[in-house]
Structure formats: C-alpha cells, structure tokens
Amino acid sequence: MKLYIKELREEKGYTQKELADMMQVSFQTISKWETGANYPDITHIPKLADIFGVSAGVLLGMEPLKEENAEVKYDDEVYWNRKRDLLKVWKRLFWNEDYFKFLVKEVWKFKKPIDILDLGCGYGYLGSIMLPLLPKGSSYTGVELDGEQIKEAEEYFSDKPYQCSFIKENIYDLKTEKKYDLVVTLFLMSHLPDPKRVLQIMKQALKPGGMILIMDANMEVEQAGFYSGLEREENGLSRPDFIPMWEYEVSHGQRDYRMATKLPYLLKQEGFKDIQARISDQVIIYEPSDPSKKQMNEDFRYVYTHEDSYEGGTGYFMNRGLSLDKANEICDYYSRSSEYFDKPDSMAVKTSGVYFVYAKL
Ligand SMILES: C[S@@+](CC[C@H](N)C(=O)[O-])C[C@H]1O[C@@H](n2cnc3c(N)ncnc32)[C@H](O)[C@@H]1O
C-alpha cells in the first residue's frame, strides 16, 4: 500500500521535523510512514489529510494525487504540437501504404481530377501521399488548428507540382463556400467530442454525389491483434484490461476507442448512402535482430519505449475511473514493455487495423 505522505509533505514545503511537530510524533515516525516501514494509526489520518488539504482517499492512494491529467483536450493545438514527432513515427507504423494505393487505384478509381478537403490535416501527410496517385489537376485543401504543422505542410508542397492550400481554423468554425469531391479525416474522428457535428460539417462541404472518407482505428481491434514475447508464460506478464478505461472515456465525452466501427451507423444517421468499409492488411512483426526490417524496427522501438506513448502515471489512469491497483498494473505493464522492447531478442506482432469508412452523399 502506498501512502502519499512524502509527496504531499514536499508539495507543502514542510520538513519531516515540521510535520512531526504538527502531528505531535517524532520525525523518525514520519520517516517510517514515508518509507512504508510503518503506517500511521487510523486516528492520525483525518489530521494528516487536514494538514495537506486533501481527502483521506488521496492520502491513502485511493484517489489520484493530481488532477492535472483529469481531462485531456484533444481539440487543442498544444496537445498535438507536443506529440508531433512521436505521431509521425506512429503514423509510419500504422500506415499501410501499398494498401492505400490499392484503395485509390483499384477500389475508388478516380478517373477525373478531384478536389479534396482534409480536416485536421496535420502536416498535410494525406495530400503528400494521395496527390501523386490522382489524375493531374486534382487539388488538396487542409484545415488544421496547429499553425506550426501548416507551416511545415506549406514548406513541403512549395516545390511540388500540386495545387494545395491550407486553412488555419478549428473545424467546428469552418465555413466553406467551395464544395469538394472528397472530404476526409485521418486519425482525427475518435478524438473529437462531437463526431455527429463533424459529419455534418463534412457533409456540408461535399458536392452532390461526393465521397466522405474517414480513416480511424478501433483500439479493441488493435489490442486483439497485438502480441509480444513479454506476454509469454515464462515472462509472467499478462496484458491489463484497458477496456474499462476506454469505456470511462467514452462515457465522459472524451475519446471514443471504437469510433471506426461505429462510423457506418453514424453515417447512415446523417443520410449517407452506399456506406462501405475496409480495413488495412498490414501486420507488423517487430524483430530487432532482423536487419532487413531496420526502419520498421527503429520506429517500433521508438514509439514503444517513448514515455509520451504511455500518457501519464497512475494519476492519469485513476482519473479515468481505474482503481490504484489497476492503474499500477498498467504502469507496470508499460514500464516492463518499454524495457523489453529495448532488448535485441524481443519480438512483437502488431496489427494496424486502420479502418477506411467511406460513403456517398
Ligand atoms: C492525430 S493528428 C492527425 C493529423 C493528420 N490527419 C495525419 O494523419 O497526419 C490530429 C490532428 O487534428 C488536429 N485537430 C484536432 N482537433 C481539431 C479541430 N477541432 N480543428 C482542426 N484541427 C484539429 C490536431 O491539431 C492534429 O494535428
């Protein structure tokens, strides 16, 4: 059991001696409480909680110590900007380029030039991979909150032979006169609090007969398709159950971890027709000992050993409805995964499972 006496004492700026005087105990007693060598008598709990100005639940580690991660705002440029580099590498792991090419060339078969609108376009990645696959004369317009990413996109396209433009705007405030043949989002929808409204905004920007395309993930599908050597019996680690946390987020208007699979239903509600979906076919085998997979191995290792991939500590998970034990279990799993993937003989299988959900107006 972990009592947050040391953390709370330091936060208040008290020495052990000062706290000991307030509690009318010796400073050795405080030291023992802090190291877990001994626990305070139950009669001390209300006074300690009162001194620190927290509930007994926080003091006893049953509630999160800090509220700062309580609500992450996903439609906030600061959040995305901080994760920019990490997201680029994540994208390479998720993105099944040959499959996307197959969809453009063999499934969607755009015969004439098209105008594309990409909401939450980031650094214009989708434009950079899609324009070379389309008939000459096609155009790409990106809408993005984060000015830094727009700058990067403009720089990238400055010497390319394509028609591109970028709008720095929150998509909820977007007003477009122009209508588009294709309106898309890539890795955006599951983060937005009001997907129904986003679909209406996308619909309003479409030409009659135009196509809406939403690419996103279902974290349950991803999890089902993930296996690492760490989970082998001899390593004694089983993967924690993340679903209660994801369900908590959905029911609190945050991320929707199953968005991709819900989209056909939402599209129908908004009056779209010919609703179809595909799922990317790439399964990554992480095997650092195989030099022929150098780039992918480096990408995998980078994201799975990067602390930002794992969000916050126990407080983050407790703020998402988990008990301290469950939160500790997840943090432990993450830190052991991170150590494991650093080893040259580690191995993992990762199914990207990106959904491509598309329909006509
Ligand atoms: C996961 S990133 C994906 C970026 C891009 N679609 C890609 O795949 O490279 C989500 C992006 O959406 C942007 N974003 C989030 N909410 C937004 C909003 N309400 N309006 C405009 N952009 C938004 C973020 O700034 C971020 O760049």
Q: Under the CATH scheme, which architecture of the largest domain would be assigned?
A: 3-Layer(aba) Sandwich
* Strand line-up in the sheet with most strands: 3-2-1-4-5-10-7
Look at the structure and give the mean pLDDT.
Answer: 89
Level-1 CATH class name of the largest domain: Alpha Beta
- How much helicity do the residues have? 40-55%
Number of helices: 17
Heterogens: S-adenosylmethionine
Q: Please provide the ordered H/E string of secondary-structure elements.
A: HHHHHHHHEHEHEEHEHEHHEEHHHEE
Low-pLDDT regions:
none
Sheet having the most strands: 7 strands, mixed
CATH topology of the largest domain: Rossmann fold
Shape: elongated
User: How many distinct domains?
Assistant: 2
CATH superfamily of the largest domain: Vaccinia Virus protein VP39
Radius of gyration, in Å, reads: 25 Å
Structural class: alpha/beta
Task: Assess the beta-strand content as a share of residues.
Answer: 15-25%
* First-last Cα distance: 57 Å
Strand segment tally: 10
Question: Helices, strands, pairings?
Answer:
Blueprint: H1 5-12, H2 16-23, H3 27-35, H4 45-52, H5 56-59, H6 77-82, H7 84-94, H8 97-108, E1 115-119, H9 125-130, E2 139-144, H10 147-157, E3 163-168, E4 180-186, H11 195-204, E5 206-217, H12 219-224, E6 226-228, H13 243-251, H14 259-269, E7 273-279, E8 283-286, H15 294-304, H16 314-318, H17 324-341, E9 348-351, E10 354-360
Helix pairs in contact: 2-3, 7-15
